[in-house]
User: Fold P-type Ca(2+) transporter from Zingiber officinale.
Amino acid sequence: MGESVRDFELREYFPAWARSASECELELSVSADDGLDSEQVSWRREIYGWNELEKHPGPSIWRLILDQFRDTLVRILLGAAVVSFFLAWFDGNLGEAGIASFVEPLVIFLILIVNAAVGVWQENNAEKALEALKEIQSEHATVKRDGEWIPNLPARELVPGDIVQLRVGDKVPADMRVFHLISSTCRVDQGSLTGESAAVNKTNRSAISEDTDVQGKECMVFAGTTVVNGSCVCLVTQTGMDTEIGKIHSQIHEASQCDDETPLKKKLNEFGELLTTIIGVICALVWLINVKYFFTWEYDNGWPCNFRFSFEKCTYYFKIAVALAVAAIPEGLPAIITTCLALGTRKMAQKNALVRRLSSVETLGCTTVICSDKTGTLTTNQMSAVKIVAMGHQTDSLRAFIVEGTTYDPDDGEIHGWPADKMDENLQMIAKIAAVCNDANISQSAHQFVATGMPTEAALKNNTILLSSICLFPWKLDSFFIGVAPVSVLVEKMGIPSDFSTLLQESSILLRCCHWWNGIARRIATLEFDRVRKSMGVIVNSELGNNSLLVKGAVENLLERSSYIQLLDGSVVRLDESSRNLVLEALHEMSTNALRCIGFAYKTDLSELATYDGEDHPAHRCLLDPSNYSSIESDLTFVGFVGLRDPPREEVREAIKDCREAGIRVIVITGDNKGTAEAICREIGVFGPDEDINSKSFIGKDFMLLPDRQNILRQKGGLLFSRAEPKHKQEIVRLLKEDGEVVAMTGDGVNDAPALKLADIGIAMGISGTEVAKEASDMILADDNFSTIVAAVGEGRSIYNNMKAFIRYMISSNIGEVASIFLTAALGIPEGLIPVQLLWVNLVTDGPPATALGFNPPDRDIMKKPPRRTDDPLINAWILFRYLVIGFYVGIATAGVSVIWYTHGSFMGIDLSGDGHTLVSYSQLADWGQCSTWEGFQVSPFNAGNHIFSFDENPCNYFQSGKVKATTLSLSVLVAIEMFNSLNALSEDGSLITMHPWANPWLLLAMCISFGLHFLILYVPFLTRVFGIVPLSFNEWLLVLVVAFPVILIDEILKLVGRWRSSSQLGRSSKRLKID
Assistant:
């Protein structure tokens, strides 16, 4: 069987699921009896490589570190730190002042290192979804090669064409076509791939269509899934990156490469670029204004000559430029943002939203579209029976009973109009079939009732031939599994015949009625569900020793195979056309109301199976072939049906309403059928009760074929996509993002991971979600509840508003610092603030109030406003003007208080002469550089705390070392103004009269902490020397408060103007709307 590369190469697209086993054998040039030989394996490995997922090389650690320095703000900080470090180094002063000069660059370097470390850690976490995907791969396989079975062959060595045997507990090593079943049935848990909660029956019969989804490929098993029952022989069709899980791996990697910056980060980068320009312009102006001090010349015959350059003065003004850079950059902003986001994640966790990435908190605030799954997110994911339809006295009449209850609690609700005293024969038969033809169970965990699945071992102990452990309806692979649990609950509400009810009074079994029915009708065989019959049957043996067949399934299919109908009194008559149409009309009415219906039928004449009693019976061979089930389930007697529904969560309708008021569109993407999904969407408010939804509701596959998909997605209001596959989710997310929307997407399966990764906010289900989906997500819902998403969006908006408050607060403070340094340089007065002082204010003093602003209470109308656009400026023109005004006042106040101290013995009645300092005129202060040329200039000693400053040797030092008191006053005024300014930041336009300071008690506490820290550096001797300041007297503190307090009055006036502007704009908008 030797071959060359030219002899064999699997077609790029070979739909093995739509081909018979023999056709697949021929296509792959292999014999199932012998398997591949060594030469074939070698050739095929050359073509297809190893059966493993690619290892995408991540960026090196150095690349990750360098990437952290791409932000403009970080680069400015780095440049300022480097320059400051070299200036301190070249000064060569190793005393206390010299050490103080190194504090500034070292602290900035420390900030940059911590910021880079956090960034690298987040980047490393980004690839965890790919690692989680690799963990679900198989490591070994049993393979037939050269005619012999090889156990425990490394799974990575598999090639297309290999024959593999799968047994219970095996992980599927590659995508494979089922060749034949060894056991009567084989079930595979595909939850790791598709998110389905139920195991799936596999068959060797080919699918009807080539164009079917993963769930429809019943003859295929997929890499990473697990065999939970039975065994089979399979043919490998795809390996490595060509498998379904390999495709998902590629999509996750591709989506991870498209990670966009968050809206806030974009705004901060834009602000950084603007800041760079502003700093450059101001530095240039400072140098131009002061160039006369370090670069002078004389004129000879009108021409400049005798140029003199003062390196000392040049360095001095260069330091001023560095101080400007430090003043302009909000160094503490990254730390404050991280703290605020971290606090936001704690708030969200209390609301069952677990945020995995801090940046997601801010992005949530500008979400414009929520793409939500239906089952379990909008609904409870607990199917409940809501209606029973039984036969009447005559063939032309039906009875309907309304069932209460929305949970798996048997005592939750009752059946209206139920004949509790005497169940007629027809109702008894419905209860019997519902109880016995049922593999589900209910258990109680604390106060919650849950479906626990099929008791396989118990069934085997009862000598049941378990040909199927789970039955699946065509609308969704796990729907029948979910459906049978509420049927068990329904049986408990129906009860048992009154003659036997006393037997159950002392029973402690949860499903007492089901247990009783199973006791009088012992199951001895099960006819598995398949997509052709759409039904499940069980052969039972009664206490009298008679065998009968009980069947449940799709109502239409049971009617087609039924010849009789059972009436109320138990009599059996022929099923005529009018009776059939009557049942179908009732079925149609219930289906249009989003009810999933399960029909019930039975059969007493079982011919050769009438005496069946186990595997040794001659008719056992008939049961081993599923193709015989249709003939066994023929000539049935139809008895009635029930309507089930997965009810919407009670809080969802209000959450949808909140979304509409908040300007957020809701798009429902579900694998459910269109009719059911539309009914649910109308009920919860995605669509109006009478809204025309022909252009808003689509089947996923049909939508993908439309040429104007983008325009459809731009429609206002809700949209619905039914029968949607994960690849449809990806395409919808991609189109929405291209249109500028901020998309939140929910998902739970492995194949949802690429869409979760691609969305701006990927939201995984905490209860039903796979680990891969959780690792690919930005947020996990601990309760799988849609309203939790809406609550998280509201919290995100509140957090963003608070972030804007402290960002504006810090920026306005920095503008004030820049204005102070600029005015000092422009006026020519002695330098007021040094870089280490500015750094202390930016990092420490401003830190607590900025953090406390993150605790501002949310606005009451926060979910009444439309989402902000991602391109909305962080600081608009009016806000910038406001803070320029505030900043200009801060500059005047900090520079002005220094001038007041030098030139005034008292100010507004406050005596400042107590320290004995010498007063000078303003002209002298502005020309202090020429002090050495002044004749007879003398300075008296002055005291500051316990220290006395004397200038007998050089009176001009009064403007250098003697400026320490003026510098301390400037620094204290700056701190006080910024504390008062934090009160202004409580509300963007609200007055402190209406938004009281105690609305945020944390802010008041933070102000006390900041003042305390300032007192610490003022009155601890070591710290006073490090920061170049001295203690202040009581009168000097009064001066500080008098100069600082007007900032509140100025901003109150500006807020008043802002409220007037807002009302004017609102009035103009209202007029335009009326005209329109």
Residues 786-827 form the longest helix (42 residues). The chain is about 45% helix and 15% strand. The longest strand covers residues 636-645.
